[in-house]
Write a structure and sequence with these properties.
Layout (H helix, E strand, L loop, with lengths): L2 H10 L6 H8 L3 E10 L5 E12 L5 E8 L4 H17 L5 E8 L7 H15 L8 E5 L5 H15 L23 H13 L10 E5 L3 H12 L3 E7 L2 E4 L6 H10 L12 E3 L11 E4 L18 E4 L7 H9 L3 E3 L1 H4 L2 H15 L5 H26 L3 H28 L1
Parallel strand pairs: 3-4, 3-5, 6-7, 6-10, 10-11, 11-12
Antiparallel strand pairs: 1-2, 2-4, 7-8, 8-9
This protein binds glutamic acid (GLU).
The site of glutamic acid (GLU) has 12 residues, from β3 and α11.
Length: 415
């Protein structure tokens, strides 16, 4: 059983649920695997494995990103799709959950080969996609250009421009302002709102693991708010500076390759692997991959709180160790929900033919993140739950409510 399902079962013990209900959530609604064949620039062809999992659509059309990575498999896609189901429920978005993936090292393909792969994915899965059915978005190693290619291929196949079929598109092609940094911004709004409750001083010290879209935007937002970024890492390595890393230099070296480009600057020292976790700080931002904090390294963490900007960065075993050390974890389905929340705003704008201002997007995102964070904190306090347990219980209870409402509709139809 995957960690998300385990946590779901744990949460279910605190709710009065219809017996058949959990059984429904034990397996995905559908999981499709497809062969994606593309022409390579040298005239040869190559095949890649593609997946799309629609986990549950009780609360609405399924929603979730597509990742391109060497180590994705059907199990990951299923677990991540369940996570999306819970995330959309927690944020009260009218969506179920889904996830997609392609087993590929995107760095090994040229720009043209990548575009062919994006289009092949849309051709393989267009039957399950649709603005009222399943709506993809970017995830690990995919971006607005990936979404533009997929949307364009989809429009060609169905013969209609239906931009609400995919979110995270370029703004010029119907994307929403504010979608690019929405994941980091959502987490940042929560941290700003809860800084006092967590006992942080105004100049919070921050360590960021993973400097992709979410991690880099978080660094920028936190630095602009006066926080001190004491260490950052990416797949190539990590760097630290007790006096705080210079954010402009960080942006510059990252755009040229890796954060390790900062080595050699005054006060900057190298940090490798798990040493990143042991850096003393107020907030540790996990913005890289799954399962990076596990039973073997959780004990070394010195942060007061952890923000899960990535999906599933902490294993259930590590959760227990961190709880015993009183480290507060702001769980992924809340912490990184800003991305899918602004995806929802994009979907609404596309369906209504509207373009919202950046201020409107930020205002709505802030209100949504703060109100759901308050709900999670209140539930945790009242029931003596961890924030993760509270988030799962709330998300699950909203899905249960929808399933119950449906059941009543069905039975009344039978009468
Ligand atoms: N991939 C992001 C996530 O895991 C965003 C999904 C979306 O916008 O649909 O939440």
């Amino acid at each position: 059983m995957n960690a998300t399902l385990k946590r779901l079962f744990e949460a279910a013990r605190h709710l009065y649920l219809d017996p058949g209900f959990l059984e429904n959530l034990e397996t995905p609604l559908e999981l499709i695997q497809a062969r994606l064949t593309i022409a390579m620039d040298d005239g040869s062809t190559r095949c890649f494995l593609g997946y799309r999992c629609r986990y549950d659509d009780t609360r609405g059309p399924t929603k979730g990103g597509i990742r391109y990575t060497k180590d994705v498999d059907a199990y990951d896609v299923v677990e991540l799709a369940l996570m999306m189901t819970l995330k959309c429920s927690l944020l009260e978005l009218p969506f179920g959950g889904a996830k997609g993936g392609v087993v590929v090292d995107p760095n090994s393909l040229s720009k043209m080969e990548l575009e062919r792969l994006d289009r092949a994915y849309a051709r393989a899965f267009y039957r399950v996609l649709g603005p009222d059915r399943d709506i993809p978005a970017p995830d690990m190693a995919t971006n607005e250009t990936t979404m533009a290619h997929m949307a364009d291929e989809y429009y060609t196949i169905v013969g209609k421009k239906t931009p609400a079929v995919i979110t995270g598109k370029p703004v010029a092609l119907g994307g929403s302002l504010g979608r690019d940094d929405a994941t980091a911004r959502g987490g940042f709004y929560i941290m700003r709102h809860k800084a006092d409750t967590l006992g942080f001083k105004s100049k919070m010290t921050v360590v960021i693991i993973g400097c992709g879209n979410a991690g880099m935007h978080y660094a920028r937002l936190a630095a602009a708010a006066g926080c001190k970024i004491v260490a950052v890492s990416d797949s190539k390595g990590g760097v630290g500076n007790h006096a705080g890393l210079d954010i402009n230099q960080l942006k510059a070296v990252k755009s040229r390759g890796s954060v390790t480009g900062m080595l050699g600057s005054t006060g900057v020292f190298e940090l490798s692997g798990d040493a990143m976790l042991a850096v003393p700080c107020d907030l540790l931002v996990m913005a890289a991959k799954e399962n990076m904090v596990h039973a073997g390294n959780a004990g070394s963490i010195k942060a007061k709180a952890i923000l899960e900007l990535a999906n599933g960065p902490i294993t259930p075993e590590a959760d227990a160790i961190l709880e015993a050390k009183n480290v507060i974890i702001i769980p992924d389905i809340l912490a990184n929900a800003g991305g899918v929340t602004v995806s929802y705003y994009e979907w609404v704008q596309n369906r209504q033919g509207e373009n919202w201002s950046l201020e409107k997007v930020h205002e709505r995102l802030k209100a949504a993140m703060i109100s759901q964070a308050d709900a999670v904190w209140a539930c945790a306090q009242e029931k003596h739950f961890s924030l993760r347990q509270a988030a799962y219980v709330i998300a699950l209870s909203r899905i249960a409510k929808a399933m119950n409402a449906l059941k009543m509709t069905i039975s009344s139809r039978l009468l």
